[in-house]
Amino acid sequence: MPRTTAKICGLSSAATLDAALQGGASHVGFVFFPRSPRNISPEEAAGLASRVPDHVARVGVFVNPDDELIARAIPAISAIQLHRTSPDRAAAIRARFARETWAAVAVRARADLEGARDYAGAADRILYDAKTPDDAALPGGMGLRFDWALLDGFDHPLPWALSGGLDVGNVTEAIGRTGARLVDVSSGVESAPGVKDVDKIAAFLKAVRT
């Protein structure tokens, strides 16, 4: 069975990026969403991306973005992660920018998983994330998790990753319970919103490896 790998998302400093790389992260994420405490500029992302070896994917995280923002960020990223973005819009972004495209599907109930099917042909990977409250300013990164049992027996339309409320204390259980081959963490490796912790990053990645 292939080993599970991890994406450390919402990185904004060289020290925390280096911790992710040294710990063996397969993906690193940069957030381009002004309302997020993890938001960075495309220029800042480019500086960080220059530290990332070719075998590690650089994922840009967007919330229903316009083409101008993506175009500014494109030099720094190798994949595009879309939240609150329709399948048609995701397909258009994928076609225009020719990057691997992830579509986030917010999950609270089993029926929410059916939304993943709409992205077949429009995206390359599904990111199952916990659904935030309707009035929440952020679509993710709030430490919420969904019931992993909802994934039992679900016929995934695309390769997928698991996100939402993961941390060093539960990621081993999450992998065992769901069979996820890629896990995605943000708030679970922070000491405060938007403040990544190098020790928590290292511990999380060690838990994933073992």
Automatic annotation (TrEMBL):
One Gene Ontology molecular-function label: phosphoribosylanthranilate isomerase activity
Catalytic class of the enzyme: isomerase
Catalysis performed (reactions): N-(5-phospho-beta-D-ribosyl)anthranilate = 1-(2-carboxyphenylamino)-1-deoxy-D-ribulose 5-phosphate
Alphabetized InterPro entries for the sequence: Aldolase_TIM, PRAI_dom, RibuloseP-bd_barrel, TrpF_fam
Assigned keywords, A-Z: Amino-acid biosynthesis, Aromatic amino acid biosynthesis, Isomerase, Tryptophan biosynthesis
One example of a Gene Ontology biological process annotation: L-tryptophan biosynthetic process
Enzyme Commission (EC) number: 5.3.1.24
Pathway info: Amino-acid biosynthesis; L-tryptophan biosynthesis; L-tryptophan from chorismate: step 3/5
Positions of the N-(5'phosphoribosyl) anthranilate isomerase (PRAI) domain: 6-206
Similarity remark: Belongs to the TrpF family.
HAMAP family cross-referenced by the UniProt entry: PRAI (MF_00135)
Cross-referenced PANTHER family: N-(5'-PHOSPHORIBOSYL)ANTHRANILATE ISOMERASE
Protein name: N-(5'-phosphoribosyl)anthranilate isomerase
